[in-house]
Inverse folding.
């Protein structure tokens, strides 16, 4: 089974989609990678969903990716003494450290890190930015702020601090337990929330030790200040537009989306665009025109993947949402302008042999109109380098490594095939031809471009390009 599009689709599992039958429907509709949100999943549910997805992959004979999304720290108000409270613009309020306050006038926040790190003039956003405060002064256990945007506050509502670098790890004890469970089950990608600095990613990478790909969610302004360093340490990025839109002016998010996508593409690492892509399809069988345009824009920008959240996890039309995303991506990729836009955004190759080879693969593929690029790979690096070029031809990635084949399900344009390792050069060319024909990418007499590292099986040593004709089935 092959997809007709290069952009991949992620879908979040939840009450509307976490049965084996519904997972199969979603896969048939176009899902390439399934996201499990640990904010709403216990370890028993995680085990059941991973088991069902592995059974699905076995049944369809294709690698199916699994992304486990760690919850991250949640900063919330404490319990208000006196219940919900309406704040008025210009009102001065007192914030106190604690689960609750002695007087109804004070607003409790049970997070000492806030009082350690916040500074004068920093903003505090409550309930996804519905209420905005500005700090006037602070001490170790209390602070005074002025209300800039009025509204009602309630117990345990979330607090965002876009100006403040908080002295806390991106992983809580819950996240560490969830991570251990996910790695034990062999998930393919770990998504890290609450990334503020490169050290957050380094901490996770040290624990994972290559057992899964590490995807950093860019959802905080402080992460943008260290984007290059975070990208260098990460295996992939996510444009987490929901939280970005809370902590930054909404009008800046589209530009930041482009910036993050282009940085990831230049680095040759997958990038996912997420949040509210088809939001209205939670309760409607059809999206708005604006939502269609939003998904299309991410595809035009060359994002590796687009993601559904509540649409597939708890919405009334999870399968229809995937089908719509699939149709949008295919329509954009068939647009006459798509290839020229993608080509115009290509970066010059780095001064390394693998990058030079891949730039040559791209040029040869486009010049001779090759039907496919076949990248023999063990680690997945060769296929990811090919995807960086965003060639018109699809990328076939034969690999003997099951984990690699699953991880590549997130990568743009890549169709991974689990196969035995190649024996020699002639075997490589012959089997590349067979796979291209058997998987439906090329017919006898058509040309493919083959690339690999010589000596064969050397990780990261891509240094060979070969043009071959697909042979008749023997």
């Amino acid at each position: 089974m092959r997809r007709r599009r290069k952009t991949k689709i992620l879908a979040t599992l939840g009450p509307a989609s976490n049965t084996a039958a519904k997972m199969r429907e979603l896969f048939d509709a176009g899902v390439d990678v399934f996201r499990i949100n640990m904010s709403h999943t216990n370890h028993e549910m995680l085990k059941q969903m991973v088991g069902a997805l592995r059974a699905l992959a076995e049944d369809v004979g294709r690698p199916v990716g699994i992304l486990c999304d760690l919850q991250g720290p949640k900063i919330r108000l404490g319990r208000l003494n006196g219940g919900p409270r309406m704040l008025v613009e210009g009102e001065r309020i007192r914030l106190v450290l604690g689960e609750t306050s002695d007087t109804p006038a004070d607003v409790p926040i049970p997070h000492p890190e806030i009082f350690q790190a916040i500074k004068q003039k920093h903003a505090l956003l409550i309930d996804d930015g519905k209420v905005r405060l500005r700090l006037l002064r602070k001490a170790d256990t209390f602070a005074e702020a002025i209300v800039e945007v009025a509204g009602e506050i309630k117990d345990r509502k979330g607090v965002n601090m876009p100006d403040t670098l908080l002295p806390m790890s991106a992983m809580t004890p819950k996240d560490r337990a969830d991570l251990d469970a996910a790695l034990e089950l062999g998930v393919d990608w770990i998504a890290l929330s609450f990334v503020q600095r490169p050290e957050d990613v380094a901490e996770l990478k040290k624990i994972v030790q290559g057992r899964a790909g590490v995807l950093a969610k860019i959802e905080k302004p402080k992460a943008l200040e260290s984007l290059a360093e975070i990208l260098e340490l990460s295996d992939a990025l996510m444009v987490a537009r929901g939280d970005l839109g809370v902590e930054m002016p909404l009008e800046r998010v589209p530009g930041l989306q482009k910036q993050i996508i282009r940085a990831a593409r230049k680095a040759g690492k997958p990038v996912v665009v997420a949040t509210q892509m088809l939001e209205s399809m939670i309760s409607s069988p059809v999206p708005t025109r604006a939502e269609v345009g939003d998904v299309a824009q991410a595809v035009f920008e060359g994002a590796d993947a687009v993601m559904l959240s509540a649409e597939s996890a708890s919405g009334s039309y999870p399968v229809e949402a995937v089908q719509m995303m699939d149709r949008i991506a295919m329509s954009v990729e068939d647009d006459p302008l798509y290839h020229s836009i993608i080509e115009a955004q290509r970066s010059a190759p780095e001064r390394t042999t693998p990058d030079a080879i891949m730039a040559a693969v791209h040029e040869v593929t486009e010049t001779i109109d090759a039907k496919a690029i076949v990248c023999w790979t063990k680690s997945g690096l060769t296929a990811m380098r090919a995807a960086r070029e965003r060639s018109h031809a699809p990328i076939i990635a034969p690999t003997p490594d099951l984990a690699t084949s699953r991880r590549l399900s997130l990568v743009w344009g890549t169709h991974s095939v689990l196969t035995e390792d190649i024996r020699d050069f002639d075997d490589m060319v012959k089997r590349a031809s067979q796979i291209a024909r058997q998987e439906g990418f090329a017919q006898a007499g058509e040309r493919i471009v083959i690339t690999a590292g010589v000596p064969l099986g050397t990780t990261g040593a891509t240094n060979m390009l070969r043009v071959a004709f697909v042979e008749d089935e023997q």
About this structure: The chain is about 40% helix and 20% strand. The chain has three domains: 8-72+170-334, 85-160, 353-469. Residues 8-72+170-334 form a domain with the TIM Barrel fold (CATH 3.20.20.60).
